[in-house]
Amino acid sequence: MPVDKVSSYSICNHRIYLIASGGNSCSWSSPGYTGSGSIVYRTPPVDGTYTVTNSGGCTASARVTIYCGGTEKNAGDFAMQTLMSFPNPANGVSTISFMGHGQEQVQLSVYSIDGRAVAEFFNEQTEKDRSCQFAFDTSNLPEGIYYAILQRSGGVTERLPVMVVK
Known about the structure:
With 166 residues, the protein is mostly beta strands. The protein has strands at 5-11, 15-21, 27-30, 33-36, 39-42, 48-53, 59-64, 71-72, 78-79, 84-86, 93-99, 104-112, 117-126, 131-137, 144-152, 157-164. It has a four-stranded antiparallel β-sheet with strand order 4-3-6-7, with no helix packed on it. Mean pLDDT is 75; it is low at 1-13 and 67-79.
């Protein structure tokens, strides 16, 4: 079966995920990197073109650019993104965490790709350098991509894709 789709996403400064669909027994390559499987990750993430080849010899490529500029605030100011999930992809429980930037109201929720809220973890005041961690149980969710969304006071929003695999 040919590889019909290659996609990727990165978690800034942590890892990059490479996903091949429509193929099996996949091997990945790029300058300085090799991996195998339909879903692989590279730590630390590196820009480049990643090529996947399946057992039938069919190939596909994805160009990956890592952007780590932070989360845009008002008037072009930036705030450091602290929202993380591990393991990601998740098969069972993933830990979602963030760091408080200051004393502010913060809300953390997870949404399905169609915008339906599937979990709310936090909706209260946080303090500077306060680390918050929550167990996100994915065992009853269908496979797919979900979004952890952290809304901070002042309009800053952080979004993080969380992939659920079975």
